[in-house]
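Quick review question:
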């Protein structure tokens, strides 16, 4: 099962991605969680200890590795666009609480057409996760257009767009849905996060078709507290975990044939 969790900055992608990863690990699945967010903090939300987190260098910052695999260098304008990456997830991920964490980082680019060596590596690794690994793979990524470009994420089984009750978030959902459909991914679902009251619930229900809505996670000060403590919401808030567990049950139901592959 391959899931990309996406959405605007700060909506709660990392909270949802990390809790789903822990829930799949709790069931005994091998889980690989990949952080493609510019503010790489999935490790904290997964409950990784500081000494492991401090040792992590995002793959896109590993200049020597990128040069070695792509043969790019200051004197070489030409480089491989199909570098070997199949060993990277196992070699460079860190494991804790049954979840392997691969920190990819992002590539700063002016437009979506960038084919710099870092970007080539990023795309190839994401592709290899999607195509070759039998694990549950959960990508935590911002809803930028580049990640949704052809050649990167179209092999995902499901996109989950995390939204907050607000017009801008609804727009993001519509954009991701359109792009994903262009890429042939028809499973685009929504998790509404930080829902405060019945007014928020009605706002979401009026705008998201019921078949797209996986569920709601209510605004919960325990999630903020977990963040302040540098802990995993999974270890901190039983109420939030129960809400996300229900969402996971719906994911598994709507993706039955893919679960058989796991
Ligand atoms: N349901 C919730 N209730 C209260 N606070 C929440 C909830 N979900 C997330 N938060 C808080 O909102 C902030 C942003 O959450 P998170 O880091 O998961 O979002 P993100 O979309 O991954 O952000 P970024 O784009 O910056 O990586 C964090 O402080 C987190 O604790």
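Suggested answer, residue by residue:
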């Amino acid at each position: 099962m391959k899931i990309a969790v996406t959405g605007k900055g700060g909506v709660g992608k990392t909270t949802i991605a990390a809790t789903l990863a822990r829930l799949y690990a709790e069931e005994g699945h091998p889980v690989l969680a990949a952080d493609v967010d510019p503010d790489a903090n999935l490790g904290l939300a997964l409950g990784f200890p500081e000494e492991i987190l401090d040792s992590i260098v995002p793959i896109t910052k590993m200049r020597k590795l990128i040069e070695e695999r792509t043969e790019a260098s200051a004197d070489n304008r030409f480089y491989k666009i199909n570098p070997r990456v199949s060993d990277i997830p196992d070699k460079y991920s860190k494991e804790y609480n049954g979840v392997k964490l691969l920190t990819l980082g992002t590539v700063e680019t002016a437009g979506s057409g960038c084919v710099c060596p870092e970007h080539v590596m990023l795309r190839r690794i994401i592709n290899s996760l999607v195509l070759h690994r039998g694990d549950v793979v959960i990508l935590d990524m911002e809803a930028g257009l580049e990640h949704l470009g052809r050649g990167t994420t179209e092999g995902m089984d499901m996109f989950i767009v995390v939204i907050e009750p607000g017009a801008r978030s609804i727009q993001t959902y519509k954009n991701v849905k359109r792009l994903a459909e262009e890429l042939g991914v028809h499973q685009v679902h929504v998790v509404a996060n930080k829902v405060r009251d019945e007014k928020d619930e009605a706002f979401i229900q009026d705008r998201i078709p019921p078949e797209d809505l996986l569920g709601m996670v209510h605004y919960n000060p325990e999630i903020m507290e977990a963040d302040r403590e540098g802990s995993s919401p999974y270890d901190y808030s039983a109420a939030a975990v129960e809400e996300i567990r229900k969402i996971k049950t719906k994911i598994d139901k709507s993706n039955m044939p893919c679960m058989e592959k796991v």
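Why it works: The pocket of adenosine-5'-triphosphate is lined by residues 7, 9-15, 37, 39, 142, 193-194, 217, 219-220, 223-224, 227 (CB under 6 Å). The chain has twelve helices and eight strands.
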